């Protein structure tokens, strides 16, 4: 029986076991997320706010309820996130033409600009680190990106 192996600083470890792989992924992604969070100034837009902005920028205007479902947060948490984004002028709410009781949220031009700036800073930081990796290591990471995206969508 063949198992998948990966090299690390401690040698070779068996990653064929889904539980062990899940643990390794959780630790690595958690560390990367914490470090990306720490790279931004206090008072900056949070990762959850950036996620909502990115979703609105990519998919277009949507309702708070739908956004909460897609982001897998409670409607109350989404309401707080949207209120903070709206207060900063990064999103705007308009009445839903089909149902006046609902609102539709859209990213503003300021929101798009902030998102582009934030992405640029994060991307530049990641690119600087990736420049220290070998071409083979970068290729391996690149091949894993679609799988990581699929994993994130299925959680």
Features:
single chain; two-stranded antiparallel sheet; 155 residues; disordered N terminus; two-stranded antiparallel ribbon; mainly alpha
Topology of this structure?
Blueprint: E1 5-8, E2 11-14, H1 18-38, H2 47-59, H3 64-71, H4 75-87, E3 91-95, E4 103-107, H5 109-130, H6 135-154
Helix pairs in contact: 2-4, 2-5, 3-4
Principal-axis shape equals globular
N-end to C-end Cα span: 29 Å
Biggest pleated sheet = 2 strands, antiparallel
Average of pLDDT:
86
Listing every helix as H and every strand as E from the N terminus to the C terminus, the arrangement reads EEHHHHEEHH
Structural class: mainly alpha
The total of helices stands at 6
Q: Compute the gyration radius: what is it?
A: 19 Å
Provide an overview of this structure.
The chain is mainly alpha-helical and 155 residues long. Helix content is 63%, strand content 12%. It has six helices and four strands. The protein has helices spanning 18-38, 47-59, 64-71, 75-87, 109-130, 135-154, and strands at residues 5-8, 11-14, 91-95, 103-107. The protein has a two-stranded antiparallel ribbon with strand order 1-2. A hairpin with a 2-residue loop joins β1 (5-8) and β2 (11-14). The two termini are 29 Å apart. The model is unreliable at 1-12 (pLDDT under 50).
Offer a quick outline of the entry.
The protein is mainly alpha-helical and 155 residues long. The protein is built from six helices and four strands; from the N terminus they run ββααααββαα.
